[in-house]
Amino acid sequence: MINVNFLVFDDFESLDLFGVVEIFGRLTNIYTLNYYSMKGGLVKSSQNAEMMTQPIAHLTNEDILIIPGGKGTRKLVKDSEWIKKLKHLSLSASNVLTICTGAALLAKTGLLNDKKATSNKRAFDWVKSVNKSVFWQEKARWVGSGKYYTSSGVSAGMDMALGFIADQHGRKTAEKIAFDIEYVWNDDPNNDLFIS
Amino acid sequence: MINVNFLVFDDFESLDLFGVVEIFGRLTNIYTLNYYSMKGGLVKSSQNAEMMTQPIAHLTNEDILIIPGGKGTRKLVKDSEWIKKLKHLSLSASNVLTICTGAALLAKTGLLNDKKATSNKRAFDWVKSVNKSVFWQEKARWVGSGKYYTSSGVSAGMDMALGFIADQHGRKTAEKIAFDIEYVWNDDPNNDLFIS
Predict the structure, then answer these.
(1) Which candidate from B22, B50, B152 shows the least CB-CB separation from A14?
(2) What is the number of structural domains in chain A?
(3) ipTM score here?
(4) Which of A47, A85, A102, B46 has its CA 20 to 30 A from that of A69?
């Protein structure tokens, strides 16, 4: 089994997380889903939903790391200790996927330098300002750069997750998941309807 | 402020809930989001996510009630005490919205009798078997019948929630939310791409 480790923080955006959760959660024979935060315990989303998490000190595998976005990222990019730990986790992970402004957190670690990446088009200027050494792609639903995947805003995370599944397990597997959750997959990473 | 009361249970489907959460959560000047379960405390989704809830004994307002679907519904339709409480809550709510197999729970109360409703097309035969006095609509993304709204599977909940917002606050408000969360709204309730 491959671990999918979701790293959350106060004021994360609910759908950033749970859209991707839903898609990985459909492959119960391949993936185990785990929820972490820096210190563990209850973490509250921007939509007032509190979820239980394990502390990252308990995260010992090196599988897939997923980072949502949301208002909480504005504070975290300035938290050097948090960013340092994220860098450590990201270096050892087999893959790192970010949704929305989660890309700003990953960009802050420096690990996206000289790589293509994208983020929410509603917050794009701010995300770009966090690290100008990233090759930010304005017109992209999602971007895969080696082991790093970054998606556009909120619901784009679902499209990216299906794209990642297609890359790993074949397109038919991704299409079956989309069908089973009755989701119209925007399957072209270059077709971005939400640029300003 | 209008309360949006999400009623969850063990083995609910994550995206059934959080897709709709995301949409109501965008109108922070109109809606307050609350999470309930029968007894309160931690409730675990089918995707291994544990969330904190209040007991329904604390639910005293008569605003909007939202019921997700998921594997847990199979057990709950047989729990007459749970269904009785759901009926009580639904009668007093201003609106009741169900996602996916959440429609089976509402149907079991009898409140959908002689009304049009829909549900997940992957579980449609089972849902229909729960109550044959409902006018089940096979080809529908979602259905609004007076104060009751029912949606098709999982991600269809987002389309229904946007449709509900459009009915309540106008189409432009719904379109702005979809744009802000970079979601391609399937805005025609009669266009169902997922019938068998």
Answers:
(1) B22
(2) 1
(3) 0.95
(4) B46
